[in-house]
Amino acid sequence: MTFEPTPLAGLCVLQPRVFGDERGFFLESWNAATFRDAGLDVSFVQDNHSRSARGILRGLHYQTTQPQGKLVRVTSGAVFDVAVDLRRSSPTLGQWFGLELSASNHRMLWVPPGFAHGFYVLSEFADFQYKCSDYYHPASEVALAWDDPQLNIQWPLAPGEQPTLSAKDAAGQPWGSVPLFD
């Protein structure tokens, strides 16, 4: 597995080794020793799986209590995945990073605690799976506005297209009013 740093400190793109032949493929998506050797000594307590249709945007979410690190990947379809740095002490505070994750490219993204996270579905459907370093804490969940002009995230939307949002995501808070991490 290769671990590729991004411009946002701590955020990392992972490319597993894929062994394939006419029968299909095999890859290792998680190995504690491999991650520890790469400087990511993390334990996971929860696995999640969501399925979404084309045009759905989920996020940008995070928790102020029990902040979660997430190892995210797509096992069917494709998404544009985004993380936003919310760490006050970070030189990249308020910056975002995005990339396509798909069943065909097998890439994964490590999103450490201190980031908001979301994705936009590019394919007819997408199965999105992620491991979490802490438990879900709904009382402290925050939705950062996906379309905040200060963040200026370049979502791959067609001109005039509006993504399908949950009520929570449609009411996402603007950058200047969300709690940050110390």
Task: Supply the key terms.
182 residues; mainly beta; Jelly Rolls; five-stranded antiparallel β-sheet
What does this structure look like?
This protein is mainly β. It has one domain: Jelly Rolls, CATH 2.60.120.10. Helices cover 5% and strands 41% of the residues. The chain contains two helices and 13 strands. The protein has helices at residues 32-37, 167-170, and strands at residues 2-5, 12-15, 18-21, 24-27, 46-53, 57-63, 70-76, 78-85, 96-102, 108-111, 115-121, 125-132, 141-143. The strands form three sheets. Strands 1-2-10-7-12-5 form a six-stranded antiparallel β-sheet, with no helix packed on it. A five-stranded antiparallel β-sheet has the order 9-8-11-6-13, with no helix packed on it. β3 (18-21) and β4 (24-27) form a beta hairpin. The chain starts with a strand and ends in a 12-residue tail after the last helix.
Distance between the termini: 31 Å
Label the structural class.
mainly beta
What's the β-strand tally?
A: 13
Instruction: Determine and state the CATH class.
Output: Mainly Beta
- The CATH architecture is Sandwich
| Share in helix | under 10%
- Cα shape: globular
CATH topology: Jelly Rolls
Contiguous uncertain segments of 5+ residues: none
- Strand coverage percent: 35-45%
